[in-house]
């Protein structure tokens, strides 16, 4: 239970941190954290035993937690894809469709199970039922494949990482994907063994399960945090570079630039692009050669704009 409390605390704190860091930005990863947090918090022993009886005392809360984990893993895959620029329309359609199928399958499997009273060891209590294997393997396979796909996306995008936290976060997410795939295999074997009456196999795989289950969650959560921190660091550097380039180019623009009557913009990159164009237009119009300092300021502004 101590580990569950630690996980829950870290995820809740992480959700709050992400809510602050992603203010005004896409919050898909924040939503992932919230879903993961709700899953882990609801599964903490004392809270689970207090809440589940209110839902009928048949472990409906387990179903809720498992569905939330499936939804959270789906938003993780889509959120990471968007964060690293790998998101595609077809990918979103695949994620939504596969997530929907898994949720329906899990719910149908759950309602056909022979119910047991509230317990924090749900799969141990009902694992001998064949439908329990379907219930568990369906969601675990989806979680493993989704985490594995997230890891593959991160591997393909590591070279494009713009900051240290970005790069470390991507590799941590890759590690989380590996843990998720290993957990998928372990759980599938345990479920089949339980149905077959081979409890010796389930006991032998208890340690890998106990390691990979929290390990995958903590690695993925840490990777998401690092990814968002890395993006904030990059945006901070970008803003500082744009502000510096604007500051150094404005005197040259005041002296040579033309007013092309572009619409006003609060975006520093748009403003810098406008100044560069108007300085070049002014220099050509007035046929005024730029001295070395002017050329250096203009080249620096173009380099900063190209880097952003």
UniProtKB/TrEMBL annotation:
TM segment ranges: 6-22, 29-48, 60-81, 93-113, 133-156, 168-189, 209-229
Keywords: Membrane, Transmembrane, Transmembrane helix
Species assigned in the record: Curtobacterium salicis
Domain of life from the UniProt record: Bacteria
Region forming the signal peptide: none
Protein name from the UniProt record: Integral membrane protein
């Amino acid at each position: 239970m101590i580990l569950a409390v630690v996980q829950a605390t870290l995820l809740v704190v992480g959700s709050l941190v992400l809510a602050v860091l992603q203010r005004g930005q896409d919050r898909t990863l924040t939503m992932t954290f919230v879903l993961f947090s709700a899953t882990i918090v609801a599964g903490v022993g004392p809270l689970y035993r207090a809440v589940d009886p209110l839902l009928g005392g048949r472990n409906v809360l387990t179903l809720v937690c498992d569905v939330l984990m499936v939804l959270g893993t789906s938003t993780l895959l889509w959120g990471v894809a968007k964060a690293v620029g790998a998101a595609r329309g077809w990918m979103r359609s695949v994620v939504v469709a596969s997530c929907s199928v898994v949720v329906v399958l899990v719910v149908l499997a759950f309602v056909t199970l022979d119910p047991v009273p509230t317990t924090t060891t749900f799969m141990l209590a009902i694992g001998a039922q064949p439908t329990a294997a379907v219930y568990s393997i369906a969601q675990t396979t989806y979680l493993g494949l989704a985490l594995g796909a997230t890891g593959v996306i991160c591997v393909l995008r590591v070279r494009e990482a713009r900051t240290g936290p970005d790069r470390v976060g991507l590799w941590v997410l890759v590690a989380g994907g590996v843990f998720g795939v290993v957990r998928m295999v372990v759980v599938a074997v345990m479920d089949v063994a339980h149905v077959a009456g081979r409890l010796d196999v389930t006991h032998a795989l208890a340690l890998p399960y106990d390691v990979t289950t929290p390990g995958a969650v903590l690695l993925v959560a840490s990777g998401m945090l690092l990814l968002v921190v890395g993006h904030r660091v990059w945006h901070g550097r970008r803003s500082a570079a744009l502000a510096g380039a604007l500051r150094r180019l404005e005197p040259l623009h005041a002296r040579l630039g033309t007013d092309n009557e572009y619409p006003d913009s609060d975006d520093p990159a748009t403003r810098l692009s406008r100044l560069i164009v108007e300085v070049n237009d002014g220099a050509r119009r007035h046929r005024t050669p730029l001295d070395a300092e002017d050329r250096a300021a203009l080249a620096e502004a173009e380099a900063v704009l190209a880097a952003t």
